[in-house]
Amino acid sequence: MTSTGFLSSAEAVTINVTAFLITLALFGVYVAALGHNPWDVYYVLYLGSFARQISVESTLTNAAPLMLTALCTAIPARAGLLVIGGEGALVVGGVATVLAGVMLVDAPFLLGVAAMGAAGALAGGLWIAFAGVLRQYRGVNETISSLLLNYIAIAVMYHLITGPMRDWDRVLKTSSWSIPDTLRVAELPFIDVHWGLAAGVVTCLLLYILMRHTTLGFSVDVLGGNPRAAQMVGLPINRMVLLCCFLGGAAAGLAGSFEVMAVHGFASESLAVGFGYAGILVAFLSRQNPAAIIVLAILLGGITASGGLLQRRFDLPDATTQVLQGLLFMVVLASNAAYGRLSVFQPARWRTV
Amino acid sequence: MTKQGFSRRDFMRRSSGILAAGTAMAALPNMVAAMGDVTVGFIYVGPRQDYGWNQSHWDAAKKVAAIDGVTVVEQENVPETAEVEKVIQSMIELDGAKVIFGTSFGYWDSLKKMAVEYPDVLFTHIGAIWKEGDPTNVIGYRGYTEEAHYLCGIAAGRMSKTGKVGFIGSKPLYFIYNNCNGFVLGAQSVNSDLTCNVVITGDWNNPVKEAEATNSLIDQGCDVIIANVDSPKVSIETAEARGVYTCGYHSDLGALAPNGFLTGAEWNWASGAEFVEAFVNGQPYPNLKRGGFREDMVELSPFGQAVPQEVRDEVMAARQGFIDDTLMLYKGPLKDNQGNMILADGEVKANTDTPFKLSIDWFVEGTTG
User: Taking a contact as any Cβ pair under 8 Å apart, which residues of chain A between 9 and 48 contact chain B?
Assistant: First the structure.
């Protein structure tokens, strides 16, 4: 690793850790104002997220979809786009998975699951690629279009699950048809977390390799860093943008797929619970680095997982973890200003020549 | 915090294996000391202070917390998805809960699943759909609110000037049908031409739909509205603003409608406290507990100031009829609103006939919806 690479990684880690500590401090002030001892609160945050087997399981179960939806923001961001359509892509992926599952009733397990996952990924990918098309060929701002596509996706899902695709036998919950029981995805061997976690980790690692160690990834970096230079060099910009959008959307679609295959077994309003939006936070925290997404998704998953325990031990409202997440987001955004300002991380400082 | 504590935490952070986390389970100091003799967990589907369903359970939680040696932990806003299983596990393993109150109908499948995994924890459910073959460490309990609705119906029938009343229901489940039938039968017992319009919103809680439904029912001429949703607050306030009468549900909502409030159907979830006491003392408990006024499992809200004394007396006499078991809710001749004869002349169903009530999926004659 070049010293520049090491320095920039050290910079990112230091600033992130500092931001996290500042957030904890601010959160401590908040809970102190509510009359609780911050150290007790910190301990309970830890207890609920990592201290016991079931805490770790809750954390990882929460983190699994976040890893994939974060990619929906991170991959296009490397190409210079700001896509916030993870929620819509997840929902579309979930619905597509149900359709595929229902059509593959007698398929063998691996084939069925692969087909359902592929259907979800394809649907999500096309959904966000559409936002990319609007940007490249019609000049529509991708942030706005992907945000609005979220609402469209959720509305379409509601229409389908309350009408054409509805399972009328499930009286207690408005939901779509169920996928066959034989095609339900189970838990990992040693831990009570579903295979979506493994899929998330593998996808992040694969995309990390793609984005950081291939010429395609380098081209995307060029595009993201300087679009004019990319144009002048003759890079196929449209294709790259669409590819990045498709990959990001496919990841989020895969998240929706696993929500259906492993968690619920059907599509319902429980698909649109904010995983896409939480993924945006994870992507920003990880500075669009797919490998860092794994770590930060687990961290954020832990915060969400400890929310219930915070509620119970301190009688705090259930929105408290959202306060923490919001603080984290603001502090991290603010800390972006620190990049490049600290001389200890500048290569020039260390040059002896 | 001792240095020992920190180094164990650092070790855990670095180790990738979950097994490490598992073995550290016993070693960590329990800084925030939990719990008394028995910890009881309450799980709410919505916010505790919703002037409705969840608040009625919060009242019960306070009663349970008042028992000696019992500590109550509560978690709000837990959706009816697989997440409730994680919450239950968290309460049992991290808080040491021995009794779990699952206060929403849709938790049933998850409660059964967890009951099998944790056989020495008691689970309660408010749907009362327990049957032979279900795990024995589960209790279903629910009051016959249709009796209280019958009394509201009497008040509504007497006070309604248009002879049309409105009923807003959440989901097409047996207790919604029963409550509506009770309401209409009570009203028809004092005004046999009375009709009722029904709107089902499809959600336990959907303020927008409830407001729309209330307005639409009032536009159709209904002048007494009752809403069987998790938080009738929106419906009552809308109806009050339009100057019609209202009846409440779950808890005492009289304060929301000073002019139009008649009375309401309330729960008495105090049986919950009984189960905990029995469980704590090692005594047997029933797997199913259902009852109406006779078993003190339902209550009537205090009357609003609009209700004249003779109507109040009539309602209270009917209430006594339920307590004495002289007043039967379902008796023949009884037709449903499709024209089918449900009960022939002379046929009577006991007020405790639970299987009959569970099987009801029809509205009585005079109801449209």
Answer: 39-40, 43-44, 46-48
